[in-house]
Design a protein that fits this description.
Elements (H helix, E strand, L loop, with lengths): L1 H4 L4 H34 L6 H31 L3 H30 L6 H28 L4 H9 L1
Helix pairs in contact: 2-3, 2-5, 3-4, 4-5
Amino acid sequence: IVMLESCKNAQERFNGVHKLIDRWLAEREQLIEAYEAVKLEQMSSNPKRKPQKDFCVILVDYVSAGHFEIYAELAEEAKAFNDVRALEFAQSIYPRIDVSTEAALAFHERCGKDHDPACDILAAKFKELGALLDERFELEDCLIEVLHNAHKQKEVEAIQA
């Protein structure tokens, strides 16, 4: 975030937000891969704990980056473009994203207590979390579209002017 605050012009800031989003979406891919690894491990006859632990670490990193970096930067960008509609949209989406955040943090907490990856309760919570993450990704994609991608043309026009 500090890097983006020190940008000298709108183009630097816009590109900085774009790179931040790209990095975050790459983390999302890692999260999805880790989720799939846990699913595969749960199907084995002797599931191991490592995929579950790896997933939990990536999960908390991803959720934290969203809340403490990405959403704030997207909102700042919308404010810079005086996009009231986008900001209102974001405020309507955040409570829905918070549901998956709470579930992710609860799963992470439970993951540390339930050491057996074959635990029925943990498996049920994992499946529930998967559905919430799927919805979260869709909502986050909407946020990116409305608060970032919608401003691309305006940014190009500002640079050319």
